[in-house]
Specification:
Rossmann fold; mainly alpha; binds adenosine-5'-triphosphate; 15 helices; 2 domains; two-stranded parallel sheet; single chain; binds magnesium ion; Tyrosyl-Transfer RNA Synthetase; three-stranded parallel sheet
């Protein structure tokens, strides 16, 4: 029996943080055991919002860090194929062929694009950004992905892939599987500053690769209940980022309940709650850090995985493209 194929991945914008872990990596670590897994390093997607030369120069370093983080988080390299999107020009060929299977108004209705067009001003919207979901369809369909794990923001993109696959099969014959979405409805992890989302651009992250001293410094500097000026003042647990992290990363439920109870009653200081969080986070991060060190000690391992994974994926994509061209009658004759 063949296992279904999963496509997942990220834009190579830097090291991964706890928000990425909660929002997607944890799910992938679990799912990659069950599916044949392709991990895209989506540098062409990065160009839609970051295309200065300095951004591009950082891609290879960021790609290595990202793959290292994913492996350190628990993905088994024997069960995953990593590939660099821009190193497979046939992805662009497929993108060109798929572009005619979706309308402009349909793309304009994708919620994240609507938001970006509003934030940047519609006049500033690059053509490539509008086409983001089509390129994503090319990513998924070029390896014949059958399942795609999605967070909240991404489900609407994969819907476009499904429509394009159906449209293609309808016009040219059954070439593509209509990919299934695996919904992970995890809420965003708040930043250390209490902002709605942990995000590199806000500088409110704890990286999976941060050392113990950095983690401790960041946790001790975290926002708590702003109205609480002293330890004997009753505090708010709801909306308090320190407790939000306890909820997610502290497996000792009794300790969390005890801290929350005493916090509400004004019988525990912020520092103690934070020190307990440091301990919990260390328990979570120490094994990730150890695996990271082992991966880094194995010189060339990550580069090799990316090069070999890209070669292997390129073969797959070439095969897909031959099939696509045949189905469309683009035989070059
Ligand atoms: P950052 O936002 O830190 O600059 P990025 O822009 O490289 O990182 P995003 O595109 O924001 O990355 O996120 C990639 C994926 O990681 C998202 O689809 C989302 O699922 C997940 N993610 C990122 N930040 C968070 C968060 N704070 N909480 C939950 N999930 C997150
Ligand atoms: Mg972001």
């Amino acid at each position: 029996m063949s296992v279904a194929r999963m496509l997942t991945g990220d834009r190579p914008t830097g090291r991964l943080h706890l928000g990425h872990y909660v929002g997607s990596i944890a799910n992938r670590v679990r799912l990659h055991q069950r599916y044949e897994s392709f991990f895209i390093i989506a540098d062409l997607h990065m160009l839609t919002t970051r295309n200065r030369r300095e951004d591009i120069d950082q891609v290879s370093g960021n790609a290595r860090e990202m793959v290292t983080d994913i492996l350190a988080a628990g993905v088994d390299p024997a069960r995953a194929t990593f590939y660099l999107q821009s190193a497979i020009p046939e992805v662009g060929d497929l993108n060109t062929l798929l572009q005619n299977l979706v309308t402009v108004p349909r793309l304009e209705r994708v919620p994240s694009l609507k938001d970006m067009a509003r934030d940047a001003g519609k006049e500033e919207m690059p053509y490539g950004l509008l086409g983001y979901p089509v390129l994503q369809a090319a990513d998924i369909l070029c390896v014949k992905g059958e399942v795609v794990p999605v967070g909240r923001d991404n489900a609407a993109h994969v819907e476009v892939t499904r429509e394009i696959a159906r449209r293609f099969n309808h016009l040219y014959g059954p070439v593509f599987t209509v990919a299934e979405l695996i919904q992970a409805d995890t809420p965003s992890l708040v930043g250390t500053d209490g902002a709605a989302k942990m995000s590199k651009s806000r500088g409110n992250t704890i990286a999976l690769s941060d050392d113990p001293a950095t983690v401790r410094r960041k946790v001790l500097g975290m926002y708590t209940d702003p109205n609480r000026v002293r330890a004997d003042v009753p505090g708010k647990v709801e909306g308090n980022p320190v407790f939000a992290y306890h909820e997610v990363f502290n497996p000792d439920r009794d300790e969390v309940a005890d801290l929350a109870g005493r916090y509400r009653a004004g019988r525990v200081g912020d520092v103690e709650v934070k020190e307990r969080l440091v301990v919990a986070l260390e328990r979570f991060l120490a094994p990730i850090r150890e695996r990271r060190a082992a991966i880094e000690a194995d010189r060339g391992l990550v580069d090799r995985l990316i090069v070999e994974g890209t070669e292997r994926t390129r073969e797959e994509v070439r095969r897909t493209l031959i099939e696509v061209r045949r189905a469309m009658g683009l035989t070059g004759a």
